[in-house]
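Example 268.
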Amino acid sequence: MNVLEVRGLSIRDDKKDEILVKNSSFQVKQGSCLAIAGESGSGKSLTCRALMKLNQSGLSEKGTVLYKGNDIAKFSKESLRKMRGREMYMIMQNGMTAFDPSTVIGVHLKQTAGEHYGWTAAETERNLHSALERVLLKNPGEVMNQYPHQLSGGMLQRTMIALALVLEPGLIIADEPTTALDAITQYEVMNELSLLRDRIGCTMIFVSHDLGLVRKVADELLIMKDGEIVERGETETVFMEHKQEYTKFLISARQVLSDNFMKIMEVR
Ligand SMILES: Nc1ncnc2c1ncn2[C@@H]1O[C@H](COP(=O)(O)OP(=O)(O)OP(=O)(O)O)[C@@H](O)[C@H]1O
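Predicted structure in complex with adenosine-5'-triphosphate:
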Protein backbone atom coordinates (compact mmCIF):
# COMPACT_ATOMS: atom_id res chain seq x y z
CA MET A 1 0.00 0.00 0.00
CA ASN A 2 1.15 3.54 -0.73
CA VAL A 3 1.24 5.86 2.26
CA LEU A 4 1.80 8.77 -0.06
CA GLU A 5 1.01 9.31 -3.67
CA VAL A 6 2.04 12.48 -5.45
CA ARG A 7 0.47 13.18 -8.84
CA GLY A 8 1.67 15.96 -11.10
CA LEU A 9 3.01 18.26 -8.38
CA SER A 10 4.16 21.62 -9.74
CA ILE A 11 5.33 24.53 -7.61
CA ARG A 12 5.53 28.02 -8.99
CA ASP A 13 7.07 31.21 -7.67
CA ASP A 14 4.21 33.65 -8.36
CA LYS A 15 6.36 36.75 -8.04
CA LYS A 16 9.00 35.66 -10.52
CA ASP A 17 6.55 33.64 -12.58
CA GLU A 18 8.98 30.74 -12.44
CA ILE A 19 8.19 27.02 -12.18
CA LEU A 20 10.37 25.59 -9.43
CA VAL A 21 9.07 22.00 -9.35
CA LYS A 22 7.75 20.52 -12.58
CA ASN A 23 5.06 17.91 -12.81
CA SER A 24 6.46 15.54 -10.19
CA SER A 25 4.79 12.19 -9.59
CA PHE A 26 5.92 9.49 -7.20
CA GLN A 27 4.67 7.08 -4.55
CA VAL A 28 6.00 5.99 -1.18
CA LYS A 29 5.13 2.49 -0.02
CA GLN A 30 4.17 1.76 3.58
CA GLY A 31 7.28 1.04 5.65
CA SER A 32 9.74 1.90 2.89
CA CYS A 33 12.37 4.60 2.63
CA LEU A 34 12.38 6.82 -0.45
CA ALA A 35 15.43 9.03 -0.90
CA ILE A 36 15.48 12.23 -2.92
CA ALA A 37 18.88 13.40 -4.14
CA GLY A 38 20.02 16.11 -6.52
CA GLU A 39 22.09 19.24 -6.60
CA SER A 40 21.37 22.29 -4.51
CA GLY A 41 18.28 24.17 -5.68
CA SER A 42 16.82 21.20 -7.57
CA GLY A 43 13.53 21.38 -5.66
CA LYS A 44 13.94 18.69 -3.00
CA SER A 45 12.94 20.82 0.00
CA LEU A 46 10.04 22.48 -1.82
CA THR A 47 8.74 19.01 -2.73
CA CYS A 48 9.01 17.82 0.88
CA ARG A 49 7.32 20.88 2.30
CA ALA A 50 4.49 20.56 -0.24
CA LEU A 51 3.74 17.09 1.16
CA MET A 52 2.87 18.65 4.50
CA LYS A 53 1.42 21.86 3.04
CA LEU A 54 4.19 23.88 4.61
CA ASN A 55 5.30 25.98 1.66
CA GLN A 56 5.07 29.73 2.08
CA SER A 57 2.46 31.90 0.45
CA GLY A 58 3.84 33.34 -2.76
CA LEU A 59 4.38 29.80 -4.01
CA SER A 60 1.44 28.18 -5.74
CA GLU A 61 1.05 24.46 -6.05
CA LYS A 62 -0.72 22.32 -8.61
CA GLY A 63 -1.29 18.59 -8.57
CA THR A 64 -2.48 16.15 -5.95
CA VAL A 65 -0.91 14.76 -2.80
CA LEU A 66 -2.74 11.74 -1.42
CA TYR A 67 -1.92 10.69 2.13
CA LYS A 68 -3.31 7.20 2.80
CA GLY A 69 -5.61 7.79 -0.16
CA ASN A 70 -6.93 11.18 1.07
CA ASP A 71 -6.26 14.41 -0.79
CA ILE A 72 -4.41 16.70 1.64
CA ALA A 73 -5.79 19.77 -0.16
CA LYS A 74 -9.18 18.82 1.30
CA PHE A 75 -7.92 18.65 4.91
CA SER A 76 -9.00 21.47 7.20
CA LYS A 77 -6.27 23.55 8.88
CA GLU A 78 -7.15 21.86 12.16
CA SER A 79 -6.84 18.31 10.81
CA LEU A 80 -3.56 19.21 9.09
CA ARG A 81 -2.25 20.56 12.39
CA LYS A 82 -3.28 17.37 14.20
CA MET A 83 -1.72 15.24 11.49
CA ARG A 84 1.65 17.02 11.63
CA GLY A 85 3.61 15.48 14.43
CA ARG A 86 2.38 11.98 15.06
CA GLU A 87 1.23 11.06 11.54
CA MET A 88 3.71 13.06 9.43
CA TYR A 89 6.79 14.57 10.95
CA MET A 90 9.34 16.70 9.16
CA ILE A 91 12.94 17.02 10.26
CA MET A 92 13.81 20.34 8.68
CA GLN A 93 17.14 21.26 7.20
CA ASN A 94 17.29 24.42 9.27
CA GLY A 95 16.35 23.89 12.90
CA MET A 96 15.83 27.61 13.45
CA THR A 97 12.71 27.51 11.29
CA ALA A 98 11.30 24.54 13.21
CA PHE A 99 11.23 26.03 16.70
CA ASP A 100 9.48 29.04 18.16
CA PRO A 101 12.28 31.58 18.76
CA SER A 102 10.45 33.15 21.70
CA THR A 103 10.35 30.13 24.00
CA VAL A 104 12.89 27.69 25.34
CA ILE A 105 13.15 24.39 23.48
CA GLY A 106 11.64 22.39 26.36
CA VAL A 107 8.32 24.26 26.08
CA HIS A 108 8.01 23.38 22.39
CA LEU A 109 8.96 19.75 22.99
CA LYS A 110 6.57 19.30 25.91
CA GLN A 111 3.69 21.02 24.09
CA THR A 112 4.16 18.90 20.98
CA ALA A 113 4.46 15.64 22.91
CA GLY A 114 1.47 16.68 25.06
CA GLU A 115 -0.69 17.30 21.98
CA HIS A 116 -0.23 13.75 20.79
CA TYR A 117 0.13 11.65 23.94
CA GLY A 118 -1.74 11.76 27.24
CA TRP A 119 1.40 11.44 29.35
CA THR A 120 1.85 12.95 32.79
CA ALA A 121 4.37 15.78 33.10
CA ALA A 122 6.88 13.37 34.64
CA GLU A 123 6.43 10.81 31.83
CA THR A 124 6.82 13.52 29.17
CA GLU A 125 9.98 14.81 30.85
CA ARG A 126 11.41 11.30 31.15
CA ASN A 127 10.65 10.37 27.52
CA LEU A 128 12.11 13.63 26.18
CA HIS A 129 15.26 13.31 28.28
CA SER A 130 15.80 9.75 27.13
CA ALA A 131 15.33 10.70 23.44
CA LEU A 132 17.70 13.68 23.72
CA GLU A 133 20.32 11.39 25.22
CA ARG A 134 19.87 8.91 22.37
CA VAL A 135 20.84 11.59 19.87
CA LEU A 136 23.92 12.32 21.96
CA LEU A 137 22.73 15.50 23.63
CA LYS A 138 24.42 14.72 26.89
CA ASN A 139 22.72 17.29 29.09
CA PRO A 140 19.01 17.16 28.20
CA GLY A 141 17.91 19.42 31.07
CA GLU A 142 20.21 22.17 29.86
CA VAL A 143 19.13 21.77 26.21
CA MET A 144 15.47 22.05 27.21
CA ASN A 145 16.19 25.35 28.96
CA GLN A 146 17.86 26.98 25.96
CA TYR A 147 16.27 29.21 23.33
CA PRO A 148 16.72 27.98 19.73
CA HIS A 149 19.31 30.67 18.95
CA GLN A 150 21.45 29.42 21.84
CA LEU A 151 21.86 25.98 20.23
CA SER A 152 24.08 25.15 17.27
CA GLY A 153 22.58 23.95 13.95
CA GLY A 154 23.67 20.39 14.77
CA MET A 155 22.07 20.51 18.23
CA LEU A 156 18.81 21.76 16.71
CA GLN A 157 18.89 18.96 14.14
CA ARG A 158 19.43 16.42 16.90
CA THR A 159 16.61 17.95 18.95
CA MET A 160 14.22 17.58 15.98
CA ILE A 161 15.30 13.96 15.59
CA ALA A 162 14.82 13.37 19.33
CA LEU A 163 11.26 14.65 18.99
CA ALA A 164 10.70 12.15 16.16
CA LEU A 165 11.92 9.37 18.48
CA VAL A 166 9.37 10.50 21.07
CA LEU A 167 6.43 11.03 18.69
CA GLU A 168 7.02 7.81 16.73
CA PRO A 169 5.38 9.20 13.56
CA GLY A 170 3.98 7.06 10.78
CA LEU A 171 5.83 9.05 8.11
CA ILE A 172 9.10 10.89 8.66
CA ILE A 173 10.23 13.43 6.09
CA ALA A 174 13.90 14.01 6.83
CA ASP A 175 15.28 16.91 4.80
CA GLU A 176 19.05 16.61 5.08
CA PRO A 177 18.64 15.76 8.75
CA THR A 178 22.30 15.39 9.64
CA THR A 179 24.13 17.95 7.48
CA ALA A 180 25.32 19.95 10.47
CA LEU A 181 26.75 16.91 12.27
CA ASP A 182 30.23 15.44 12.26
CA ALA A 183 30.61 11.96 10.78
CA ILE A 184 30.53 10.02 14.06
CA THR A 185 27.48 11.85 15.43
CA GLN A 186 25.86 11.46 12.00
CA TYR A 187 26.36 7.71 12.23
CA GLU A 188 24.89 7.51 15.76
CA VAL A 189 21.91 9.68 14.88
CA MET A 190 21.15 7.82 11.63
CA ASN A 191 21.41 4.61 13.60
CA GLU A 192 18.74 5.88 16.04
CA LEU A 193 16.48 6.69 13.10
CA SER A 194 17.06 3.19 11.68
CA LEU A 195 16.28 1.61 15.05
CA LEU A 196 13.09 3.68 15.20
CA ARG A 197 12.12 2.41 11.74
CA ASP A 198 12.82 -1.17 12.79
CA ARG A 199 10.79 -0.71 15.96
CA ILE A 200 7.68 1.02 14.61
CA GLY A 201 7.91 0.27 10.88
CA CYS A 202 7.52 3.91 9.89
CA THR A 203 7.78 5.16 6.33
CA MET A 204 10.51 7.65 5.47
CA ILE A 205 11.39 10.22 2.86
CA PHE A 206 15.06 11.00 3.14
CA VAL A 207 16.64 13.94 1.37
CA SER A 208 20.40 13.85 1.25
CA HIS A 209 23.42 14.93 -0.74
CA ASP A 210 25.27 11.97 0.71
CA LEU A 211 24.72 9.18 -1.79
CA GLY A 212 26.75 6.75 0.34
CA LEU A 213 24.23 7.18 3.10
CA VAL A 214 21.32 7.06 0.64
CA ARG A 215 22.56 3.73 -0.69
CA LYS A 216 22.66 2.40 2.84
CA VAL A 217 19.21 3.48 4.01
CA ALA A 218 16.90 3.93 1.02
CA ASP A 219 14.81 1.33 -0.78
CA GLU A 220 14.00 3.65 -3.67
CA LEU A 221 15.64 6.74 -5.05
CA LEU A 222 14.55 9.79 -7.00
CA ILE A 223 17.11 12.07 -8.62
CA MET A 224 16.01 15.67 -9.14
CA LYS A 225 17.52 18.27 -11.43
CA ASP A 226 16.19 21.77 -12.11
CA GLY A 227 12.86 20.97 -10.47
CA GLU A 228 12.30 17.70 -12.35
CA ILE A 229 12.64 14.05 -11.48
CA VAL A 230 15.21 12.84 -14.01
CA GLU A 231 15.85 9.33 -12.72
CA ARG A 232 14.03 6.94 -10.40
CA GLY A 233 13.99 3.35 -9.31
CA GLU A 234 15.13 0.93 -6.65
CA THR A 235 18.23 2.41 -5.04
CA GLU A 236 20.60 -0.35 -6.08
CA THR A 237 19.31 -0.26 -9.66
CA VAL A 238 19.80 3.50 -9.87
CA PHE A 239 23.36 3.07 -8.61
CA MET A 240 24.22 0.20 -10.93
CA GLU A 241 22.15 0.86 -14.05
CA HIS A 242 21.36 4.58 -14.17
CA LYS A 243 20.38 6.04 -17.49
CA GLN A 244 21.34 9.68 -16.99
CA GLU A 245 24.81 11.18 -17.18
CA TYR A 246 23.69 13.52 -14.41
CA THR A 247 23.12 10.58 -12.04
CA LYS A 248 26.57 9.24 -12.91
CA PHE A 249 28.04 12.64 -12.13
CA LEU A 250 26.23 12.85 -8.77
CA ILE A 251 27.31 9.36 -7.78
CA SER A 252 30.96 9.97 -8.59
CA ALA A 253 31.04 13.47 -7.10
CA ARG A 254 29.42 12.37 -3.87
CA GLN A 255 31.47 9.22 -3.57
CA VAL A 256 34.45 11.26 -2.49
CA LEU A 257 32.46 12.98 0.24
CA SER A 258 30.93 9.81 1.61
CA ASP A 259 34.15 7.76 1.70
CA ASN A 260 35.01 9.24 5.06
CA PHE A 261 31.63 8.26 6.48
CA MET A 262 31.82 4.72 5.10
CA LYS A 263 35.26 4.25 6.66
CA ILE A 264 33.77 5.00 10.06
CA MET A 265 30.90 2.56 9.43
CA GLU A 266 33.34 -0.19 8.55
CA VAL A 267 35.40 0.32 11.68
CA ARG A 268 32.33 -0.09 13.87
N1 LIG B 1 9.98 30.38 -0.64
C1 LIG B 1 10.54 30.43 -1.84
N2 LIG B 1 10.23 31.40 -2.73
C2 LIG B 1 10.80 31.45 -3.95
N3 LIG B 1 11.73 30.56 -4.39
C3 LIG B 1 12.08 29.58 -3.55
C4 LIG B 1 11.53 29.46 -2.25
N4 LIG B 1 12.07 28.38 -1.63
C5 LIG B 1 12.94 27.87 -2.53
N5 LIG B 1 12.95 28.58 -3.67
C6 LIG B 1 13.73 28.31 -4.88
O1 LIG B 1 13.29 27.07 -5.42
C7 LIG B 1 14.38 26.31 -5.91
C8 LIG B 1 14.39 24.96 -5.26
O2 LIG B 1 14.67 25.14 -3.88
P1 LIG B 1 14.77 23.94 -2.84
O3 LIG B 1 14.99 24.56 -1.49
O4 LIG B 1 13.62 23.04 -2.98
O5 LIG B 1 16.11 23.21 -3.33
P2 LIG B 1 16.85 21.94 -2.73
O6 LIG B 1 16.96 20.94 -3.83
O7 LIG B 1 16.17 21.50 -1.48
O8 LIG B 1 18.30 22.54 -2.44
P3 LIG B 1 19.32 22.25 -1.22
O9 LIG B 1 19.93 20.93 -1.50
O10 LIG B 1 20.30 23.37 -1.34
O11 LIG B 1 18.53 22.30 0.04
C9 LIG B 1 15.63 27.14 -5.66
O12 LIG B 1 15.93 27.84 -6.84
C10 LIG B 1 15.22 28.09 -4.57
O13 LIG B 1 15.93 29.32 -4.64
